[in-house]
Design a protein that fits this description.
There is one protein chain. By secondary structure, this protein is α+β, with helices and mostly antiparallel strands. The protein has 2 domains: about 1-35, no CATH class; about 40-210, tt1808, chain A (Alpha-Beta Complex). The protein is built from 4 helices and 15 strands. It has a 6-stranded mixed sheet with strand order 3-6-8-9-10-11, with helices on both faces. A hairpin with a 2-residue loop joins strand 10 and strand 11 (about 160-165). The chain is globular and about 45 Å long.
Length: about 210
């Protein structure tokens, strides 16, 4: 038997489902993904990033505000909404006119990659995020190895890309005028050396090695 096609949802149906169940769903246009619980590494990296960003902003007396993954980011022109792991806003929140509690003007977005979100974070979300006019940096952090990718907006429709692979490297975020060392992002994280991966049909498949 072939794979069952995913159920299609309208925006209104998903918003009603969130209210009814109390669950968070990300809406991709005509399908949605329920936000399941995260791994210990994911949670720790997210917490480290929030702490380090807030501390760096405070040191530099930067008034930008940091928000956790409970904040709903709405991309109005594409009728999508997501819950980034971390988002920073340097202007007053611009509230969505169509979706309650949604906002649409982030300056910086962080996503921590999981094995289930790899393709969405690196491809689908990236393609949408980089079209947000207010966005200056998009940062993707791997939870399985030391790897941080950053897209910085250089000019209108021009983005630069860099990948950091060493714990001693510094993540520089020009839009916030701050920098964070990778060893602080990964503080306390224990990588699973028994995890192997391969790319299959544009998805990153993680497998546990069996000795």
């Amino acid at each position: 038997m072939g794979k069952q096609a995913p159920k299609r949802y309208s925006l209104e149906e998903i918003l009603q489902l969130e209210v009814k169940t109390g669950e968070k769903w990300e809406f991709y246009g005509n399908y949605a993904v329920c936000m399941a619980g995260s791994s210990p590494n994911h949670s720790l990296i997210q917490a480290n990033c929030i702490g380090e960003v807030n501390a760096a902003l405070k040191r530099s007396k930067n008034p930008c505000q940091t928000y956790s993954s409970d904040l709903k980011l709405v991309i109005e022109e594409f009728s999508r909404y997501f819950y980034p792991d971390l988002s920073i806003f340097c202007e007053k929140l611009n509230k969505s006119q169509h979706i309650q509690y949604g906002v649409n003007n982030p300056t910086v977005i962080f996503e921590v990659v999981s094995k289930n979100s790899f393709r969405r974070d690196h491809s689908i979300k990236k393609g949408i995020y980089l079209q947000i006019s207010s966005l200056k940096s998009y940062i993707v952090i791997d939870q399985y190895s030391c790897s941080v990718q950053i897209h910085n907006k250089k000019d209108e429709n021009i983005w630069t890309f860099a990948q950091l692979l060493d714990m001693e490297d510094w993540l520089v975020i020009p839009a916030l005028e701050i920098e964070i060392q990778l060893k602080e992002i990964y503080r306390g994280v224990e990588f699973d050396n028994d995890i192997d991966w391969e790319v299959q049909e544009n998805e990153l498949i993680y497998r546990t090695k069996i000795s």
